[in-house]
Predict the structure.
Amino acid sequence: MATAKKTKAKSKSVLTEKSYEFLRNYINTPSPVGFESSGQKLWLEYIKPFVDTHFTDPYGTAVGVINPTAAFKVVIEAHADEISWFVNYITDQGLIYLKRNGGVDHQIAPAKRVLIHGKKGTVKAVFGWPAIHTRMSNPEQKEPAPKTDNLFLDCGARTKKEVEALGIHIGAVVTYEEGFDELAYDYLIGRAFDNRIGGFMIAEVARLLKQNNKKLPFGLYVVNAVQEEIGLRGAEMIARRIKPDIAIITDVTHDTQTPMISKIIEGDVACGKGPSPTYGPAVHNKLLQFVQDVAEKKNIPLQMRTVSRSTGTDTDSFAYANDGCPSVLISIPLRYMHTTVEMLHKKDIEQTIELMYHTLLALTPKTNLSYL
Ligand SMILES: [Zn+2]
């Protein structure tokens, strides 16, 4: 049919200008683990026109629902939280020591600009670090390596009192300042594409369903879960609440083409070469095969991977929730995970959206997922 052809020929433009505007804002809005509400509010506002109803849970997981009265429930899911730091100790000289809130990378910290989210609003600060001159002045001394216990923030205050006067308190969260930017050849960079690109992609799936007037034979729960980075906790909570029959999870995975990464260990995955689903015990084999068949029909290239034991993503929370929920993980390749320059390729974003979208259109409550 002509429309199908048109979609295919225009497959580069699945995403609109407005989509990218939302992505930019979303990435530029800090959403630290346990304090995700600013990002969640923005996400809910964006997705509301595309769903029939929405709700949130006590810890801030946000869910948009299409066909809320349907008995059979399918989830598409991403995690909303981003890694960050906690203010842990303030010295008499006004310097601030931190504790990790998620797997934030200490190696990239020196000289980075940060935002401290205090009681009186956002306060700018920097990770101070001894100058090369003073570091090198004693040739006997080894170069210090950045670690949580020698990294400190300088916000301009010179006493503890001055720090506190800015609204900074023990437990205030700290995020890096860098936001969304674009590079040549359709690459995007930013802080916390892990995994707000997932929140973006599931929202775009909802938008496409609405825009193309598609009716699904099941309830679709578009879930943006909190607290993944500290142990898949938000997904654990919401999986129990929704009790889905099927869950499709999306997150980021490592591009393995850059130096100092072993393909022998991490597999062979490249940005720009398509979504990357994984094999693993939590991943339901029949559901995975179903996704692979959809990809083949729609000419979406896949880069398969494997995981030992757990996937390390919300897939585990959904799979092992309740009485067992057939779950699949469709990841998107990303370079430099947990740094401020996480890098993605636009084509992968589009193809991951398309793969989830077409999988949903092909699924029915009757799809046979029985193992035996
Ligand atoms: Zn992560």
